[in-house]
Structures are given as structure tokens and as C-alpha cells.
Design goal:
Helix content is 34%, strand content 15%. By secondary structure, it is of the alpha/beta class. The two termini are 26 Å apart.
Length: 468
């Protein structure tokens, strides 16, 4: 940043996030920390976009006072930001956009982490396993590759990985193509923002646009989004299966029809209720409140046997306790002879007549060159998720005689409520999502105690000034 921009940033930060009992006043170190946050979250273009937003916020005060926001005395600066923070105008969102990286940077400081005794237990380093030899980083291919297999599976997450395991167990030659990289628990430690930048899908922003914009986080890893989810494992409710049967005519998917499948998956993933030693303060508050109100409540079912409650599930489990497909189905499939190419993004489905006979994927290297992988297969399975699979179908103009591909996506939006208590919650020392209120499940509404690592949560704290 230029000297003028640095000064503007510090004066905005001084008003929005002033010194407190633990945090000192913003200083030059904050500028570097904000730039780190921007690069981690938005790549090379992040700082330039942020400078434009910062300049816009600096100009907000000109029509009101004839001075830039940064030139106002501190009390007037704070009053202006507080006023902007009360509305829902463009200025409100401008303020949120500018202050979010500041709040994240402030929450990452060593002095705060030491004051709150936030630590991460050192996990044993992962050991090289024989099945890992079956994972090939496609960017390392010297030349274009041509492969013939029984089945090629596009995607290594919750859909593709169990299929790969089932087919490999039956002796079929299986190739899995995954657009993301392969990470081990050695990668699941340290800065959560850097982990997010590596493991979350960033190739084009994924938003749902309706009565409110909704960010749709997705993993781009071996394991798909199971690598970076919170580990909650719900079965489809019976009421939904009843609707499928009675309203949609899907008799084979009625109540009880999936129980045997669920049981097999749950055994594979070690699904069980979250244990008291990992539930932490959030769960205690939710349970106490639900009990007082007479609401049904219980620990959530999770796929994390041996969890030690480090609270970073959504940035990769540092102990591999969470059994995403990256540590369950994928290793089991590879141990049975399946092969996996990481960093291989499928671009084209090969057809002969009306039958899919393979795919073409591309791996782009950092120097801009690329390797192409052409796969011929007796069976092609697209398992790239509820967003990725329709994108492949639409790009290849396939399976869309109804015109409905890419329509009808159902999401579960989540909002949140922060509260202030007279005792410590320490939500970062527990599973991030471990306890639920089931009272209103029949109308499609669930409440869950949840927490994120402090630096990830900081941006969602809406206050500015002394209240922040």
C-alpha cells in the first residue's frame, strides 16, 4: 500500500477496532496483516480491490462534513462508522467489506491468542502409506496421457469415493479424477486462512442468489468437501422419504429403504454422537437453554472417532480423526488397486453415439503449460457434487432433454446469533458443531451450537468501536 493508503487504513482501524484490555491500538504491523488476509482469501487481486473499497469508505464523510473519513477526529470517525453500521444501505456493506479483513487481522495477533490461551496440539506427522503411491499429481506428467479402465469416476468426495471403493472391491480397474490436490494432516495445521485458500474451491465464486446472497463453500481436495466440512452426519428424515414415496412416486426410496446402506456407511466412517469431552461451552449453553424451554435436544452424529476437539474441522482435521473420504473410502479404494489423479479437471465427456465412453481432463501447471489426460472407460460416473456435475453436463450439452439440469438445487442456508455470557465459552476448544436442537426439525428448522476459529469468526462480529 502507498503511504496515504496505509494511513487511511490505520485511521479506519483505530475507529472500528480501537485498543482494548488486551489488544493494543492498531499499528503498522496491522497493514501487513491485512494484506496477508487479503492475499490468502482473494489471491493477487485482493489488495487492489480492497484499496478501492478503502478509498470509497474514506470518501463517505465528504458530503456530510467536507472532510474525508480518515481526516475526522477520532470521536467523529467512530460516530460516523457507528451510524453506517446501523443501516442496510450500500454504505453499510461498504463498511462491512472494509472492516472484515481488519477484524480478522486483529483476531490473528499473537498477543490475543496468548491472552486467551489458544493453542493447537501438535499431531503426529502422517506416515507414508503404500496406497499413497496410487495418487498421481497430474501436473507432474511429462506428456499427455492416455488410459483405459473399466470405470472412470469424476470426483473423490461423498459420491465418488464410496463408488470407487465398491467397484475396486469387486476387482474392477477404477480411475478417480479429482480437480483438487491431495492433502495430509501435515497440511492441516497452522494458519486457518492459508488452509482455507488451499482447500476451498476458488475457481469462480460460488454464490446462490435469491432473497439474499448465499455463499456456498465447497472443498477442492482429494475427499471433496468432506475434507473441510464439520463432520455432522444426518440421515435423510423419514418425513422426506415419505414425501418421495407418496408425492414423487419413488416407492423404492420410502421410509426404511436406505437403512442398510446408512448402516454400512456409518460403520465405515465411525459415525457416533459427539462425546461430552469434546462438546465444550457452546454445547453446554445450547443444552441448558433447550432444557429450560422444554425443547428436544441432543449431541449431533459425527464421523470423528477419537476427536480431541481442536475446533478446526472445516479447515482439515489435524489428527485425521474426522473420517472424510480422504481418510476412509479413498485409501480403502486405492489399497484395492484403484488409481487417482489429483489436480486433473475434467473438461470433456467422450461420446460414441449416445453412450459416454470416457473423459478428457487437463492439469494446468504453474508455468501456464498443461498436461492432458484422455481416459477411455466402459463406464463413466460423474460424481463432482451438486454444483460440479451439472456444470460438466451443461458444458458438454448432455442429459438435458428436460431442460432442468442446473435447476432445482436445494441448499440449507444458515444464520447465526452471537451472545455475551458472564462465563467463558471457549468455543475454539471443542468440536465446532456438536450439539443440536431437534424440536423444530419437522418444519425444516434446526438450531446448532457452533463456533469457528477466532480469526474466521471475527469478521462476523458486526460491532465497531468500543463495543467491538
Amino acid at each position: 500500500m502507498l503511504a496515504r493508503e496505509r494511513e487511511t487504513l490505520l485511521r479506519i482501524a483505530e475507529a472500528a477496532t480501537p485498543a482494548g484490555r488486551v489488544l493494543p491500538a492498531p499499528d503498522d504491523q496491522l497493514v501487513g496483516d491485512v494484506e496477508h488476509v487479503l492475499r490468502a482469501q482473494f489471491g493477487k487481486r485482493g489488495p487492489a480491490l480492497y484499496r478501492a473499497l478503502l478509498q470509497a469508505l474514506d470518501m463517505v464523510a465528504v458530503p456530510l462534513s467536507g472532510q474525508r473519513t480518515s481526516a475526522l477526529p477520532l470521536a467523529e470517525r467512530q460516530a460516523l462508522l457507528a451510524r453506517l453500521n446501523e443501516g442496510s444501505t450500500a454504505a453499510f456493506w461498504l463498511l462491512r467489506s472494509v472492516t472484515a479483513p481488519i477484524k480478522i487481522a486483529r483476531a490473528r495477533t499473537t498477543v490475543l491468542r496468548e491472552a486467551l490461551a489458544i493453542t493447537q496440539s501438535a499431531a503426529a506427522r502422517s506416515q507414508a502409506e503404500r496406497w499413497q503411491r496410487q495418487i498421481i499429481d497430474a501436473r507432474a506428467l511429462d506428456d499427455d496421457e492416455q488410459i483405459e479402465v473399466d470405470c472412470v469416476i469424476v470426483g473423490s468426495g461423498a459420491g465418488g469415493a464410496p463408488l470407487a471403493h465398491a467397484l475396486a472391491n469387486r476387482g474392477h480397474a477404477v480411475l478417480i479424477l479429482e480437480a483438487g490436490a491431495h492433502f495430509t494432516r501435515d497440511d492441516f495445521a497452522g494458519d486457518v486462512l492459508e488452509r482455507q485458500a488451499r482447500m476451498y474451491r476458488r475457481r469462480g465464486a460460488h454464490f446462490a442468489i435469491g432473497n439474499t446472497p448465499l455463499l456456498v463453500p465447497m472443498g477442492e481436495t482429494v475427499g471433496g468437501s468432506t475434507t473441510i466440512n464439520s463432520g455432522t452426519c444426518y440421515r435423510v428424515p423419514e418425513r422426506v422419504q415419505r414425501r418421495w414415496m407418496l408425492e414423487e412416486g419413488l416407492a423404492s426410496l420410502g421410509p426404511g429403504s436406505l437403512d442398510g446402506h446408512y448402516e454400512r456407511v456409518e460403520r465405515m466412517l465411525g459415525v457416533a454422537r459427539a462425546t461430552p469431552d469434546t462438546l465444550g461451552g457452546c454445547a453446554e449453553v445450547i443444552a441448558r437453554g433447550a432444557e429450560a424451554l422444554g425443547y428436544a435436544h441432543e449431541p449431533l452424529m459425527r464421523n470423528a472417532p477419537g476427536c480431541d476437539g481442536q475446533g478446526t474441522c472445516v479447515f482439515g482435521c489435524p489428527t485425521d480423526a474426522k473420517r472424510g473420504t480422504n481418510v476412509s473410502y479413498i485409501p480403502a479404494a486405492l489399497a484395492r488397486g484403484a488409481l487417482l489423479y489429483s489436480r486433473a479437471r475434467v473438461e470433456r465427456v467422450l461420446l460414441e453415439g449416445d453412450r459416454a465412453v470416457g473423459v478428457v481432463a487437463r492439469a494446468r501447471r504453474e508455468d501456464g503449460s498443461s498436461a492432458r489426460i484422455t481416459v477411455r472407460a466402459a463406464a463413466v460416473a460423474l460424481a463432482a457434487g451438486a454444483a460440479g456435475t451439472p456444470k460438466i453436463l451443461l458444458a458438454n450439452r448432455l442429459a438435458n432433454s428436460s431442460g432442468r439440469v442446473g435447476h432445482g438445487l436445494t441448499l440449507h442456508p444458515a444464520s447465526y446469533a452471537w451472545a455475551r455470557f458472564d462465563h467463558d465459552i471457549r468455543g475454539w476448544s471443542a468440536v465446532p458443531q456438536g450439539y443440536g436442537v431437534e424440536e423444530f426439525a419437522d418444519v425444516g428448522l434446526r438450531f446448532e451450537g457452533a463456533f469457528l476459529p477466532l480469526e474466521a469468526a471475527a469478521a462476523t462480529l458486526g460491532h465497531v468501536g468500543a463495543r467491538w
